[in-house]
Amino acid sequence: MRRIAFIGLFLLLSIKSFCWGFYAHQRINYFAVFLLPPEMMVLYKPNIQFLSDHSVDPDKRRYAIAAEAPRHYIDIDNYGAYPYTALPRKWEDAIQKFSEDTIQANGIVPWWIAIMQQRLTNAFKEKNQAKILKLSAEIGHYIADAHVPLHASSNHDGQNTNQRGIHGFWESRIPELLAENEFDFMIGKAAYVADIPKYTWSRVLESGAAADTVLRDEAALTNLFPTDRKYAFEERSGKLVRQYSTEFTTAYNKVINNMVERRMRQAIASVAGYWYTAWINAGQPDLKNLNNTAFTEEDLKEFEKLNADWKNTALKGRVHE
Ligand SMILES: [Zn+2]
């Protein structure tokens, strides 16, 4: 009995699970900065810590606003088989065909990215530094989420196939264990994205196509591992928690052929590409010479509130996205 209570406590400690995990989101925004041209680097490099720290604000907002959750995923397999042609890519056509309630329930990440991109472009046009930084940090989050296979699957935490936990395993445990020493994030230069919606849908379709592999390979490997080798008490952020063992994690990473690294690299390239595109489409404003260089009282209050809600409130909407 005491043993069960003990294990329960550890599970509770690790229950707050996030898209890509905080760690991966922060790394993705951080490395995206290095792909930018010098004209953008003058703003992004001195603010790299902000862009990295605030990459996770959209996840924190999920504790304050119920409408936030669907912005992080799309259960695209609910619309038939790959390449999901039954689902219109245009928002108006999609809600006309399926109703807005259904579209919202299945997640809206590709459409939300387009809205954020427009806001970021406008912020560049207004030369509003505070807005540019906030929106850059946040759009980086949604773009990164669109690159996660299980963010494009209705079986998002393996709940339909007895694989619960796979969501956090793929996007938190693997990068936290392997990114620092084994992943390569030297990528090149940001590329202009001529058609934002088309590009976004291509990444989402890649994610949808990879979800099967993510799930199938984990199930196959689980058959080769006794439970006491699949899970182990190992350290995470200075705490001992029961989690997927190092042995299982590295074996799985090999089976999926470094898919997590490949999707992280693609996410970094995409984030830099969207930032760069917004700046170009706004007419390449001089980023050494912006307005609103300090965050307003209101901005600072919002940052504080996001943190407070995240720490003290129950999650609204779906747990694992
Ligand atoms: Zn997210």
Itemize the secondary structure elements and their pairings.
Elements: H1 2-13, H2 21-32, H3 38-44, H4 48-53, H5 57-61, H6 91-98, H7 100-106, H8 109-125, H9 129-146, H10 166-182, H11 196-224, H12 227-230, E1 231-236, E2 239-244, H13 246-255, H14 259-281, H15 297-312
Antiparallel strand pairs: 1-2
The structure holds zinc ion (ZN).
Question: Can you give keywords for this protein?
Answer:
321 residues; mainly alpha; P1 Nuclease; 15 helices; 2 strands; globular; disordered N terminus; binds zinc ion
Radius of gyration: 20 Å
CATH class of the domain at 31-162 and 180-209 and 260-312: Mainly Alpha
Helix content: 55-70%
Helix/strand class: mainly alpha
- Widest sheet: strand ordering: 1-2
Taken in chain order, the helices and strands follow as HHHHHHHHHHHHEEHHH
- Globally, the shape reads globular
CATH topology of the domain at 31-162 and 180-209 and 260-312: P1 Nuclease
Instruction: Supply the CATH architecture of the domain at 31-162 and 180-209 and 260-312.
Output: Orthogonal Bundle
Largest sheet: 2 strands, antiparallel
Bound chemical compounds: zinc ion
Distance between the termini: 32 Å
Structure characterization notes:
- With 321 residues, the protein is mainly alpha-helical.
- It is 60% helix and 4% strand.
- It is built from 15 helices and two strands.
- It has a two-stranded antiparallel ribbon.
- Helix 11 crosses helix 13.
- The two termini are 32 Å apart.
- The model is unreliable at 1-17 (pLDDT under 50).
- Bound molecules: zinc ion.
- Zinc ion binds at residues 19, 58-59, 72, 141, 145.
